[in-house]
Amino acid sequence: MNYSQKTEVEILQHASLLEGRNLKYIQKESKNNDESINTQNKGSVGLFIEKYWFGIDANSSEKPDFEKAAIELKVCPLKKTSKQGFKTKERTKICMINYEKLVKEQWKKSHARKKLNKILFIFYEFDKENWNKQRVIAVRLWSVNQDEKILEYEWEKTYKIVSQGNAHKLSEKGYQALAPSTAGTGREIKQPFNSILAKERAFSLKQSFVNQYWESIKKNPVSFESLLDTLNLKSAQEIEYKLTEIFDIYVGMSLGEIAKKNNIKIKLTAKNAVPIIFKNIIGLKSHKSKIKEFEQFGIQIKTVPVNKNNSFMPYEAMSFPAISLEEFSQEENYYDSDLYNYLSRIFIIPIHRNTRNAKSSPIEKRTLERPFFWSPSDIELDIIQKEWKNYQNEVKDGKAKVIEIKNGRETTGLTKSKDTEIIHMRPHASNNQDRDCYKGNSIVKQSFWLNTKFVQKIIQESNNRN
Question: Partners of 30 in the beta sheet?
C-alpha cells in the first residue's frame, strides 16, 4: 500500500509489481491474510486485487477508481485455449447506465467517458479450480484516445434510443465495441419519456474489443493494420460500406484476373492465395497483418466455395475453430461464449467454382461473387442460443462420445445437423489422431458449424437484396 494514488507514474509502478505474481502472493503481502474470500463471486478476483494491492474498497462511486489520476482499474480474466493461447474470457463492465442522467449528458462530459478516460488493465490467468494460483500476466494502461471515435458513436447510439423513450428496447445486438449489456440483478427500472420499465443495463467493452487490445500488448504481440488509416475513413461506420464498394468492382471476375489486374505476384496454388489477394486489393501493407477493426468488432472473414449455377449451394457447412469440450461445458452463458463472438458479425465472401472437388478447380479460375456482411436476426439468434444450449447439455451429459465407427469415421451421440435449423457440432480436426477427451471419452476434436442449407439461404437473401 506504500504508494501514491495521485500520480500515474506511481500507480503504474505499483501495478507493475504484480506481473508474474499470483493471488497467494498478494494475500501473503497484505495484512488481512485471514479475510474470508467468496471465491464463487464472479468478480471476486477483481475485488480482491483492488482491496489488497491497491487499497480500494468495494464501492459504487461514479468517479474513477484513482480519482486524482483519472484512472479506472479493471481486472480482466484470460482463459487459456488449446490453439489460440490466452484470450479474454468475458466482456468488461465499465459502469451502470442511469437512464435519467444519461439523457442530460453529452459524450465529452458523460459518466461513461470519465470511466473510459484511462483504464489500468490487470490481465490474469483464470483458474476456477485453483483460486490462489491465478497469476497476473500483464499490466497495461489503455487510453480512450486510441479508439474514441468508435466508442463515442456507440455511446451516442444508446443515448438516442434512451432519449426517444425506448430504453426498454435496448439490446447488445448491433453494437461492436461499447454495448449496453444486461447487468446487476436484471431488474426493471424507470426510464425517462416512457412509463414502460426498462431492464437494468451497463456500458461494457465487448470481449472482442478488449481481446484485440490484449493481442496487441502481449509478450509476442500480433501485428495489426487499421482500415480507418488504410482507407482514409473518418469513422468506423464507413468500413462496411467502403469494403463492399471495393469488392463490387471485382464481382464476376476470376481470382486470376483480379491478381493480374492488381499486379499481385503470388503462387495461385498456395493455400493462402485467396486472403493475400483480398488483403492486397483492400490496400493492407502486409498479408500477415490482422485487421484491427475486424478484431475489435469480432468480425470473422469467411470465404465460402459455392456453385452459383446451383442456387449458390455451398460445397460444405461453414466451420468455426475447434473447441475444447471441457471449456465449452464451463461457458456460463451464450452471450459470453466463443460461438456468440464468432457469429456476432461475419464478412462472407462467396467464391464460385464448378466442381465439388477443389483440386479439379484451379484457384485462378474461381470467380468472386458478391460479398456481404451478416449477423443473426433476433429470431435466428434465439434459435442459435437454444441449439447452443442443447449441445452444451448433451456434452455435460456425456453424449460427446463415440457410438459407432464406420469406414474409419466416428459417429457421436450429439444431435446431427439434419435435426437442427442453424448450427450443429461435428468433427473438425486434421486427422483421427487429433482428439479431445472429456468425461473419460476420447473423440475427434469438435467444432460448431453453420448448416449448409442455412448458409445457402443467407447468400441467396443477400443476392436478392442486390
Answer: none
